[in-house]
């Protein structure tokens, strides 16, 4: 079982994460990846940048727990999570979740599960820098709903 | 002694990344908040009353009645918005 | 709207497909990718290779229709589908589906939808070459179930 | 004239990628299959009877009662297994 969790300022390579995962086991048949990017708008204010803060001692612990939960639920062969912090520009990658499994159903479900819980449980905060000033983002109701559906 | 830390909008509104508090009779998060709110005239009172807060003791999310003991790190922060 | 559908013998680069999609629009906030790989075993017979045949005039038509269905269901900004044909070895990539959207829910759903329908509707056939001989694979019941759930 | 093509296991079992058939009274896939099964002693009969088949007329999947007209391409193949 290959697990790698990184919180970093520098950008990341989807390809590098994918190449690591495909080699996690020679019975990997499915790799699902999710990449979150900085969009150039959010609720109509023109976003010029994003600042990402986190709670260093806690973030990695929370991410490890979420990944561990996913490994309990599905038969996985590899998981890679990368989350950037600091100053980001529109188009920059923010987060990567990549999951390797034997079959596609497990890879898709685990990847979406990790993203949904990362959104509601990992201690990151986004401050949006827009033409009309800065503002801390607030959690979306839809993100809470997305995480809740895994509890049924 | 308890280490209190703030993050994101809370850190900015308190204009401080945190402070230390002598423990004595403080045994829960709720009791700690009451102590922090005491010095009125400081922004603490209004911010604690107004913001939607989450609390973690030693990097574990807890309720406001979560226990606190000497040496703990208590973090206050708004709901997370990463990803 | 960026749509690219390819059926080819040569390998493909996940990274290249991703880089094309992230630039599909500057409001792309989410890219979900799925890569299917040749596993080294399938139902316990040791697989030494795979041969993929398709129905040339029909495959691209079916894939375009599946992608079009996904675009009707979700608000997408880009879709890339690559499927290999010919002789493949264990560990080789077989298929890539990548979807760009504003938000993650749409990207995940559309990517899984396209894979599920590709599995049951696109005219590809796999012949497994194993230590104990060759055999054409038969459709899995679970693949039919996976595609059926999108009809509700 | 109708162009008949076979794929995958079907192509291998027929030992042929396809054939052409003069149309005359053939108006449906079912009728075409009956014509193809006629020459008993050939493998056609048993294979058509035994294999789980899908049919496409001009690259569109149809039922066995699907219509056929002059110039059509009729493809027979097993359930797909790509991805």
Textual characterization of the structure:
The complex is a heterotetramer, with two copies of chain A (152 residues) and two copies of chain B (83 residues). Chain A is of the alpha+beta class and 152 residues long. Chain A has helices at 14-22, 56-73, 104-121, 141-148, and strands at residues 2-8, 30-37, 41-42, 45-54, 76-84, 86-88, 93-101, 124-130, 133-136. Chain A has four helices and nine strands. In chain A, the strands form two sheets. In chain A, strands 3, 4, 6, 8 and 9 form a five-stranded antiparallel beta sheet that branches. In chain A, helix 2 packs antiparallel against helix 3 (104-121). Chain A starts with a strand and ends with a helix. The mean pLDDT of chain A is 94. With 83 residues, chain B is an alpha+beta fold. Chain B has a single domain, classed as Beta-grasp domain (Ubiquitin-like (UB roll)), CATH 3.10.20. Chain B has helices at 8-14, 29-37, 44-50, and strands at residues 2-6, 18-21, 54-57, 60-62, 73-77. Chain B starts with a strand and ends in a 6-residue tail after the last strand. The A-C interface holds A 13-15, 18, 22-23, 26-41, 90-91, 93, 102, 104-105, 107-108, 111-112, 115, 142, 146 and C 13-15, 18, 22-23, 26-41, 90-91, 93, 102, 104-105, 107-108, 111-112, 115, 142, 146. Strand 2 of chain A pairs antiparallel with strand 2 of chain C.
């Amino acid at each position: 079982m290959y697990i790698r969790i990184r919180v970093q300022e520098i950008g990341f390579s989807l390809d590098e994460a994918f190449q690591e995962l495909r080699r996690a086991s020679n019975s990997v048949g499915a790799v699902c990846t999710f990449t979150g990017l900085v969009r150039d708008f959010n609720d109509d204010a023109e976003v010029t940048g994003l600042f990402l803060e986190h709670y260093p001692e806690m973030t990695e612990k929370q991410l490890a727990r979420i990944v561990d939960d996913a490994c309990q639920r599905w038969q996985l062969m590899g998981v890679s999570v990368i989350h950037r912090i600091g100053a980001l520009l529109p188009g920059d990658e923010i987060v990567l979740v990549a999951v390797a499994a034997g079959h596609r159903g497990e890879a898709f479900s685990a990847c979406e599960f990790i993203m949904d819980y990362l959104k509601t449980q990992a201690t990151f905060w986004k401050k949006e820098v827009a033409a009309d000033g800065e503002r801390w983002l607030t959690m979306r109701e839809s993100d809470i709903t997305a995480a809740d559906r895994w509890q049924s | 002694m308890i280490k209190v830390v703030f993050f994101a909008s809370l850190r900015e509104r308190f204009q401080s990344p945190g402070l230390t508090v002598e423990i004595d009779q403080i045994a829960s998060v709720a009791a700690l908040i009451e102590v922090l709110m005491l010095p009125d005239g400081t922004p603490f009172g209004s911010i604690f009353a107004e913001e939607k807060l989450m609390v973690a003791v030693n990097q574990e999310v807890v309720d406001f009645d979560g226990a606190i003991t000497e040496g703990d790190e208590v973090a206050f922060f708004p709901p997370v918005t990463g990803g």
